[in-house]
Design brief:
The protein is mainly α. It is globular and about 65 Å long. Helix content is 41%, strand content 6%. The strands form four sheets. Strands 1-8 form a two-stranded antiparallel sheet. It has a two-stranded antiparallel sheet with strand order 2-5. Strands 3-4 form a two-stranded antiparallel sheet. It has 17 helices and eight strands. Among the domains are: 165 residues, Serine Threonine Protein Phosphatase 5, Tetratricopeptide repeat; 98 residues, no CATH class. It holds the Pfam family SusD-like_3. Belongs to the SusD family. It comes from Spirosoma endophyticum.
């Protein structure tokens, strides 16, 4: 899919990610030849274009970025309607011809290609070393981010770190080599990036690189690599972010999802509806089809949690802010609403929904009161946080405990910070390493419920599908009896990519 972006779109991203770049420059942001890299403005525009490739609707701007993650218990979808693409993966039955899967593949790749262009040419720009390095550091971070999602979703993928001819057909590289490339890029990003970009939200900085690196190391301790020596490396990187004191959990949980760039946002994609770059996974996408606003707009019923996932949530203020459990049904007069519980026979899905994704940015998703819905919008200006500080704290808690053979005082301190903000008491002391790890995984499931694969990737690295499927309730989309769970931790390579690369072998089970 080749998309031409308007200058306005590039200008918007320059505003959102660059803060003070001039709009009078010709960005040339989506052009790739090295000859366009002459000034710092050209370079900044090309870096901005990397963010666009990730954030756009055909990549991570819509719910289809999570298509293959619907096998998780924090995601399910309607048993009918036009949700077949999501429903198939919810049933662990998705295939390579799934059209929504394409966003998971193409989004990261197009970002990677644009990052390669920046990395290959940034040194040629007539500018200061500091500014050039900052641009390159962001490109290294974003390239690593793209590969991190690709390797966890699809397994072996080609490692392409230079500009290549469109006719090249590189082989898929082993998972361990892909991770080595990711680590190399993040180490380079750490070297080149400043600790922060004051007043410029959206720019990846050194703390973002270290946070991602901690998560990468932790993931490598699980399936398929099972490199347990990386626990200490994960703990060290996460601890460096914690010790920086740049982030905190002082914002109420619900507020994090109704405002942008909170004090716990380490890296988030910036969106702007008027600039043609909307986030469309908040608002309508997470609202019940049963709900119709006074202006006639309605929910899309794309995603919501499984019933037992909701029922197993810890009673606390975070749970109250996470789940939407009272459905508003518009009455015949078009102005008043009947409030019914999520499991009322008057609802067609009989599921709770996500409250935290309804508002968008201060209500530009769903505009409502406790008893009335005024409007339900599909396009929001909400930042989509890829890395929040609680992820770093929980990564540190797990990694430090496993590295030491049991939780340390600092391991407990990290998880208890997350629990305190959630409205929960401190975790039981004296747990074994495994019991503590399981407690952290449980905490992460509900701290990040419904958030871009966080729960799914825990299921994958710890190979939890048998337990997750066993806990499914009878009202969920049924999984075929002969499903081989071991073959479902990776998604299939999209069929069009297999056709372009006839030497590739499809992932097992597809």
């Amino acid at each position: 899919m080749n998309t031409k972006y308007s200058l306005l779109l590039v200008f918007v991203v320059l505003i959102l990610t660059g803060g003070c770049q001039s709009l009078t420059e010709d960005p040339k942001g989506s052009l790739t030849p090295g000859t366009y890299f002459k000034t710092q403005a050209d370079l900044d525009a090309s870096v901005a274009a990397i963010y666009i490739q990730f954030a756009r609707d055909g990549a991570w701007g819509f719910t289809n970025r999570s298509t293959s993650y619907f096998g998780s218990d924090d995601f399910t979808t309607d048993p009918g309607l036009n949700k077949e693409d999501f429903r198939l993966f919810d049933r662990l039955s998705g295939g390579s011809g799934n059209l929504s899967l394409v966003a998971q593949w193409q989004g990261p790749w197009q970002g990677i290609y644009q990052a390669n262009n920046v990395i290959a040419n940034y040194a040629k720009v007539a500018s200061t070393d500091v500014l050039k390095n900052q641009a390159a550091g962001q490109a290294y971070f974003l390239r690593a981010l793209g590969y991190y999602y690709l390797v966890r979703t699809f397994g072996p993928v080609p490692i392409i770190l230079t500009q290549i001819d469109v006719n090249d057909r590189p082989p898929r590289d082993p998972v361990d080599k892909v991770y080595a490339a990711i680590i190399s890029d993040l180490q380079k990003a750490k070297e080149l990036l400043p600790a922060s970009f004051p007043g410029q939200p959206g720019k990846a900085n050194q703390m973002a690189a270290r946070s991602l690196l901690a998560d990468v190391y932790l993931t490598m301790t699980g399936w398929p690599l099972k490199q347990e020596s990386n626990y200490k490396l994960a703990a060290d990187e996460a601890n460096a972010v914690i010790q920086s004191n740049q982030f905190n959990l002082n914002t109420a949980y619900a507020t994090v999802f109704a405002t942008n760039n909170s004090p716990e946002s380490i890296f988030g994609l910036q969106y702007n509806v008027s600039g043609g770059l909307p986030l469309r996974s908040a608002g309508s996408s997470s609202v019940p089809l049963d709900e119709v606003a006074t202006n006639g707009s309605s929910g899309w019923d794309d995603y919501y949690p499984e019933i037992n996932f909701y029922k197993n949530a810890p009673p606390c203020s975070r749970t109250d802010a996470t789940f939407y459990t009272t459905i508003k049904l518009r009455q015949p007069d078009g102005k008043t609403f009947k409030l019914v519980p999520w499991d009322s026979p008057e609802t067609h899905a009989g599921h709770p929904y996500y409250k935290k994704f309804r508002a968008g940015l201060n209500g530009d998703g769903v505009s409502e009161t406790e008893t009335v819905i005024n409007a339900i919008n599909p396009s929001t200006n909400k930042v989509y946080d890829i890395i929040r500080y609680p992820l770093v704290l929980l990564d540190y808690a797990e990694a430090s405990a496993m590295a030491a053979g049991g939780p340390t005082a600092d391991s407990y301190k990290a998880i208890n910070l997350v629990r305190k903000r959630a409205g929960l008491p401190d975790l039981t002391p004296g747990l074994s390493a495994t019991a503590f790890r399981d407690a952290v995984v449980y905490e992460r499931a509900y701290e990040f419920a419904g958030e871009f694969g966080v729960r799914w990737f825990d299921i994958v690295r710890l190979q939890l599908l048998p337990q997750v499927v066993a806990a499914r309730g009878p009202l969920e989309n049924p999984i075929p009896a002969n499903t081989n769970f071991a073959q479902k931790y990776l998604a299939p390579i999209p069929i069009n990519e297999m056709a372009r690369n006839p030497a590739w072998v499809q992932n097992e089970g597809y």
